[in-house]
Write a structure and sequence with these properties.
By secondary structure, the protein is mostly helical. Helices cover 43% and strands 7% of the residues. The chain is built from 8 helices and 4 strands. The strands form 2 sheets. Strands 1-4 form a two-stranded parallel ribbon. Strands 2-3 form a two-stranded antiparallel ribbon. α5 crosses α8.
Length: 199
C-alpha cells in the first residue's frame, strides 16, 4: 500500500521496482517473448489539472508520492481504520472486472491499439468514501459498518487526494474491455469470492 511505500522508501523500491524487475528478468530467461500485461496505479498520474477532470491515456504521469513513482476488511468481521475524509472521491474497480480485463488485455493484438502508446485506463467507477460506506451497510449491515473507525491521518489523506478520481475510458471500451458494476455488486462478489477464505 502507498502509505508503507511513503514511510519506508527502501521497502517501496524493493517491492515496486526490484521485485518487478526480478519477475521480468526471470521471464526473459525462462520464457523469452512471453507477453506481459503490466499493471499500474492511479497514483502515477498525480492530481488532475482540475476537479473531476477525466484523464485519458494521453495524460503524462506526474506522481506526487514515491508509491506512485514505484508503481474490505469489515465484511470479514475485522475492524478497519478509515484514515481519510468521507467526502473524498476515488476511482475503483471490482476484482472480478480487473481480472477479466487483464486477461482481455493479454489477448489484444498490438495493432489494435493504433498509433502511439499501448497504455489503457481500465474501466471503473468514481465513488466517494461515504458511498462506499453506504454500500458496505447495504451488503453487510450495521454490524459491518460499526467495524469502521474514523481516524483521519493527514499523511494518508494527502496521498489519496493526489490520485485522480475520474477517467476517460473510451479507449478501453473501444478495445472491448468490460465496464464495472455497482458498489453493491462488487461487495456481493467479494463475499462470494473471498469471505471466510483462509489463506
Amino acid at each position: 500500500m502507498s502509505g508503507a511505500a511513503e514511510a519506508d522508501l527502501e521497502l517501496g523500491i524493493r517491492v515496486n521496482i526490484d521485485a518487478t524487475r526480478q519477475v521480468l528478468d526471470t521471464l526473459r530467461r525462462m520464457n523469452p517473448g512471453v507477453r506481459v500485461v503490466f499493471t499500474s496505479t492511479t497514483a502515477v498520474y498525480g492530481p488532475p489539472p482540475a476537479p473531476n477532470f477525466p484523464l485519458t491515456e494521453a495524460n503524462s504521469p506526474a506522481p506526487l508520492s514515491s508509491y506512485g513513482s514505484q508503481k474490505v476488511e469489515p465484511l470479514n468481521g475485522q475492524k478497519s481504520i478509515l484514515p481519510v475524509s468521507r467526502d473524498l472521491s476515488i476511482w475503483i474497480c471490482s476484482p472480478r472486472t480487473v481480472v477479466e480485463n487483464l486477461i482481455h488485455a493479454r489477448d489484444i493484438a498490438a495493432e489494435e491499439h493504433g498509433e502511439g502508446s499501448r497504455v489503457v485506463n481500465l474501466p471503473g467507477i468514481t465513488v466517494s468514501i461515504q458511498e462506499m460506506l453506504a454500500a458496505l451497510e447495504a451488503v453487510g449491515g450495521q454490524e459491518a459498518l460499526d467495524l469502521v473507525e474514523d481516524k483521519r491521518d493527514a499523511a494518508t489523506e494527502k496521498i489519496v487526494k493526489s490520485w485522480p478520481a475520474t477517467y476517460d475510458t473510451s479507449k478501453a471500451k473501444r478495445l472491448g474491455f468490460v465496464e464495472d458494476g455497482t458498489l453493491e455488486q462488487t461487495l456481493q462478489q467479494y463475499m462470494e469470492d473471498y469471505r471466510d477464505r483462509r489463506w
